[in-house]
C-alpha cells in the first residue's frame, strides 16, 4: 500500500503575506487501499468532512484526472480544520499526490506547485507543504516559483483556539489598496526576515515577524488573543509572535532551549484553546510505498 504524508504549514510569518511559509511537524496521511466501484475515504473527522468524491483530496485528484479509478482511502489527520495551519493546502497536495500515484504522472515538485497554487490562489501554504522547511514563494497568476531553506533551531509554540476562522472571512477584512509607506516598510521587513533566516539569526527573524502591516493590522479585531500572546511571549523571551496564516492560530517562535519554560508561562493566559510545542518539519510531501 502507498501512503502519502503531507505536513501542516504556517503562512505569512508576519510580513511575508501570501509569500512566506514553513512546514510544521504535524501531518495529514492518506493510505491508498484497494480499488472499489466508488470512491470512499475513511476518516475520524466527523460529518463536516465528506467521505465520498466530494472530499477535497479526491476532488483535487479528479480535477487532474477525471477518470481515475476509484479507491478506498484511509485518512488520518493531526491538522485542525480552519485554524490557519494549512489543512486545505495539505489536502490539495495529498490529492495531487494521489493523482500522481494512481495515474503514474511522475510529477516534479515544480509541477505540483503550479497545480496547487492555481487551486489555492496563493503559494505560502502549498509550497512549504511540498518542499518542507522555510519557504519563500511567488505567484503572479501565471507561474509560481518557490525556494526552501532550513530554519534556524527553534520551536513553534502554537496556540490553536477552539473556534474556527474561515480564510475567506479573514481575507474579507483586508483593504484592496495600501499606503505606499506601509507597503515599503512591510516588504522590506519580509526581505530582512528571509536574510535573517538564511544567516541563522533567529532573534532578528523573530523581530521581523512582528513588523507586518499587510494583514495583521486589519485582522487584529478578529483575533484579540494575538496581542495578549505577543505581549506575554515577548516578556518571557520569545523571538517573535505572529498570526499563523489567516488565523486564528498564533505562533510564538522561541529558541529551542527556552521552549518549555516559555510555554509554561503562555499556558497561564486565560484563553480557550490548546497549545502545541512544534518542531519545524525539514521535509515536505513524502510518499512511502
Ligand atoms: N496568506 C494567506 C492569508 C494564508 O493570510 O490569507 C491563508 O490561506
UniProtKB/TrEMBL annotation:
UniProt superkingdom: Bacteria
Keywords: Amino-acid biosynthesis, ATP-binding, Cytoplasm, Kinase, Nucleotide-binding, Threonine biosynthesis, Transferase
Entry-linked InterPro entries: GHMP_kinase_C_dom, GHMP_kinase_C_sf, GHMP_kinase_N_dom, GHMP_knse_ATP-bd_CS, Homoserine_kinase, Ribosomal_Su5_D2-typ_SF, Ribsml_uS5_D2-typ_fold_subgr
Coiled coil: none
Catalysed transformations (reactions): L-homoserine + ATP = O-phospho-L-homoserine + ADP + H(+)
Enzyme Commission number: 2.7.1.39
Entry protein name: Homoserine kinase
Amino acid at each position: 500500500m502507498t501512503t502519502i504524508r503531507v505536513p501542516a504549514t504556517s503562512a505569512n510569518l508576519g510580513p511575508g503575506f501570501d509569500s512566506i511559509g514553513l512546514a510544521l511537524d504535524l501531518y495529514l496521511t492518506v493510505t491508498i487501499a484497494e480499488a472499489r466501484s466508488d470512491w470512499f475515504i475513511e476518516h475520524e473527522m466527523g460529518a463536516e468532512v465528506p467521505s465520498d468524491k466530494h472530499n477535497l483530496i479526491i476532488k483535487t485528484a479528479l480535477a487532474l484526472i477525471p477518470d481515475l479509478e476509484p479507491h478506498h482511502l484511509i485518512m488520518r489527520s493531526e491538522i485542525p480544520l480552519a485554524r490557519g495551519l494549512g489543512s486545505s493546502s495539505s489536502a490539495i497536495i495529498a490529492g495531487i499526490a494521489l493523482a500522481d500515484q494512481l495515474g503514474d504522472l511522475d510529477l516534479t515538485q515544480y509541477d505540483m506547485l503550479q497545480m496547487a497554487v492555481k487551486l489555492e490562489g496563493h503559494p505560502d501554504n502549498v509550497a512549504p507543504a511540498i518542499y518542507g522547511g522555510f519557504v519563500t514563494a511567488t505567484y503572479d497568476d501565471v507561474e509560481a516559483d518557490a525556494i526552501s531553506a532550513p530554519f534556524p533551531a527553534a520551536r513553534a509554540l502554537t496556540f490553536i483556539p477552539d473556534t474556527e476562522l474561515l480564510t475567506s472571512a479573514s481575507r474579507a477584512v483586508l483593504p484592496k489598496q495600501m499606503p505606499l509607506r506601509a507597503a515599503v516598510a512591510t516588504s522590506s521587513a519580509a526581505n530582512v526576515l528571509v536574510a535573517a533566516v538564511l544567516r541563522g539569526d533567529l532573534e532578528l527573524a523573530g523581530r521581523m515577524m512582528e513588523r507586518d502591516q499587510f494583514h495583521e493590522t486589519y485582522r487584529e479585531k478578529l483575533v484579540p488573543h494575538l496581542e495578549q500572546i505577543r505581549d506575554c511571549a515577548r516578556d518571557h523571551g520569545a523571538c517573535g509572535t505572529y498570526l499563523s496564516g489567516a488565523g486564528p492560530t498564533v505562533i510564538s517562535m522561541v529558541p529551542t532551549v527556552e521552549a518549555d519554560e516559555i510555554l509554561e508561562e503562555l499556558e497561564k493566559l486565560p484563553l480557550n484553546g490548546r497549545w502545541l510545542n512544534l518542531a519545524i518539519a525539514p521535509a515536505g510531501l513524502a510518499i512511502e510505498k
